[in-house]
Amino acid sequence: MRTAGKLARLRRLALRNHPVRLPVSATAPTVDVGAACATCGTALQGPFCHHCGEKRLDHHDYHLGHFLEHAVDTATHFDLKVVKGGWSLLRRPGLMTREVLAGRRVPWPKPLQLFLVVNLLFVFAAHKLHLQIFNTPWRYHVDNWYGGWAAGRMQHLAARRGITLDQLAEQFNASANVLSKTLIFAFIPLLALLLTALFWRQRRYFLEHVVTGTHLISQILLVELVMIAPGTALIWLINRARAQPLDFGNRDLVATAIITLSITAWAAVLLRRTYGGGAVAATARGLAVGIGFFWLLINVYRPLLFLVTYWLL
């Protein structure tokens, strides 16, 4: 009995000094401790950097569900990073996008957060300056490629309600004025699809193009605001040099050309910094974005605005 007791005590001492190590399940989550933080370079001890708080980039970050999980939180917060991000889109286009896609996201605002603030700024300025780039009253829909079909729908609805087409058009314009501010969001997936076509050889995640598209539409809105003063000055100089001032159609044509060239220039720099490539290729892709934006505006955004407004009347 004494011998058995001694053996039991020896066994307990052995286990205490040399504990049995159970094999780790292959399905258990692991962290590459040797990896470095993408933002500050500190060695990671877990999924978050203990020095700056940056989260380690993972394939899950480019899943659509993960992107949408943060939409509500993104929409309800504001900080000075938004100012930094907006300035970067104009001062050093593509720097923020490249950093965010590389996993260095702590110094920058979230893409949706930046877009919402820039969109709010643009809507406020457009209201004060009476700009109608996105807001499309009924008369503009009639002159578009779907105008005949749209006029038939509106006439049918007016007859069913027992009112005139002009009265229905007033209701339409009031609703379209509100909805146009929200539907600018549609340019994010539309530009992402355009970027997917332009950079299909790089085989990137679609959500990477969504991030870039979000930065692009934010940049486009800022560029349109920045170019208001130079564009107005140029039209004034043209009118001074001409015997007869430009009519509305020609003024609109000049303004569209100025905005298209400006979008092309800024987008080319953003795309080159983000995706790489030479100057010629970047310029061609920037021009594709500039022309593509107005093509989407006329052929996709305005029909979508009509359909949503008509459906909600």
UniProtKB/TrEMBL annotation:
Q: Which InterPro entries match?
A: DUF3667
Q: Which organism is it from?
A: Hymenobacter jeollabukensis
Q: Which residues form the signal peptide?
A: none
Transmembrane feature ranges: 114-134, 182-200, 220-238, 253-275, 287-312
**What are the entry keywords?**
Membrane, Transmembrane, Transmembrane helix
Q: Does the keyword Transmembrane helix apply?
A: yes
* Descriptive protein name: DUF3667 domain-containing protein
Top-level taxon in the UniProt lineage: Bacteria
